[in-house]
Design brief:
The longest helix has 27 residues. About 35% of the residues are buried. Among the domains are: about 120 residues; about 100 residues, Four Helix Bundle (Hemerythrin (Met), subunit A), CATH 1.20.120. It is globular, with a radius of gyration of 24 Å. The protein is mainly alpha-helical and about 325 residues long.
């Protein structure tokens, strides 16, 4: 009796190739987040088939190049990809020019990480809260922490946790990626990440190696970044609703404005979604610049200027949402 045939033999080669191409983004994500090393020594490869069946061969052109239409691209004329920072693997500075310190202070970065830790600790205090929906807030908090550490890793100047930033960035980006549902496994992942976060804040060195090259879209996806942006926008509206609120809590306005500036620049990194869309980048730049103006007015104690800048910031967000939702 002949052995049973593999089910893949009943799938056309073209369909199998399409399935493999669909898996490539997943493989890229895992490699970018965890940096799995290639095994030492030569890799064992399966021998290619000596011939194809008639049904399989019929799925392909005899000469694919003969079927192409139009001129072929000149690869020598393609632009060079952006170079990363040699010490951390990330971009050397904001995509829009300038420097990260011109957008967000080291104190704001450190405070953001510590505040989001408080959120995570609250969510993990009761497992049922995490499983019941808190895992989404944990994902957003871990993403915000990873984004802050990504900036710290390439920050031009003194800032807390810079040596630990690349490892922390990858560690908490991975935790955010895992917090996509509420169950025992993701609760354990979040709990371990919270312990690592405490080590980071306490000044202990995190173990493991950091990825040599960053894909900023893998560090913090757009959905959790937009959740953080929405949170900031609400806070800015509250603090600038009246001069009394502005006078009472300028630190909150300054923190949230600088986080908006960070996000506005973060989502313009070349690897992020819609980077090639000039209109989208225009909205992000307008939002970032308005946030910078709001922060500057807050430092000077100028309520009217801060209020106007926040109004421009919110208008940019509303217009972008109307076009891209």
């Amino acid at each position: 009796m002949s052995p049973p045939q593999c089910p893949l033999q009943f799938v056309g080669r073209a369909g199998l190739l399409l399935a493999l191409f669909a898996l490539l983004p997943c493989l890229s994500t895992a490699q970018a987040q965890f940096g799995s090393p290639r095994p030492a020594g030569p890799r064992q490869r399966a021998e290619p088939p000596q011939s194809w069946s008639r049904s399989t061969a019929s799925q392909f052109f005899p000469d694919a190049f003969a079927e192409l239409e139009g001129p072929r691209p000149d690869l020598a004329k393609l632009p060079e990809p952006p170079l990363g920072n040699a010490s951390s693997g990330g971009p050397a500075g904001p995509a829009g020019g300038g420097s990260w310190p011109s957008l967000v202070s080291g104190d704001t970065l450190a405070d953001e990480i510590k505040m989001r830790k408080l959120d995570i600790d609250r969510i993990l205090a009761k497992k049922r809260d995490f499983v019941g929906g808190g895992y989404l807030e944990a994902r957003n908090s871990f993403s915000s922490i990873a984004a802050a550490l990504a900036v710290i890793a390439v920050y031009d100047g003194d800032v807390r946790w810079k040596d630990n930033a690349p490892r922390g960035r990858d560690r908490f980006a991975a935790a955010a990626f895992e917090c996509n549902q509420g169950n025992d496994q993701t609760f354990a992942v979040a709990t371990q990440a919270a312990d690592d976060l405490q080590k980071l804040i306490s000044g202990s060195r995190l173990g493991g190696a950091a990825a040599q090259q960053d894909d900023w879209n893998r560090i913090a996806a757009r959905v959790p970044l937009m959740a953080r942006l929405d949170r900031a926008e609400k806070a800015l509206a509250e603090v600038t609703a009246a001069e009394a609120a502005f006078t009472k809590d300028p630190e909150r306005l300054l923190h949230e404005a600088e986080m908006v500036a960070l996000i506005g620049e973060f989502i313009q990194q070349p690897q992020c979604d819609d980077f090639g869309d000039e209109t989208y980048r225009g909205y992000a730049s307008t939002m970032r610049d308005a946030a910078v103006q709001a922060a500057a007015a807050t430092r000077k104690g100028e309520f009217a200027a801060a209020q106007a800048a926040v109004s421009a910031l919110r208008k940019s967000c509303d217009t972008c949402h109307a076009d891209y939702r």
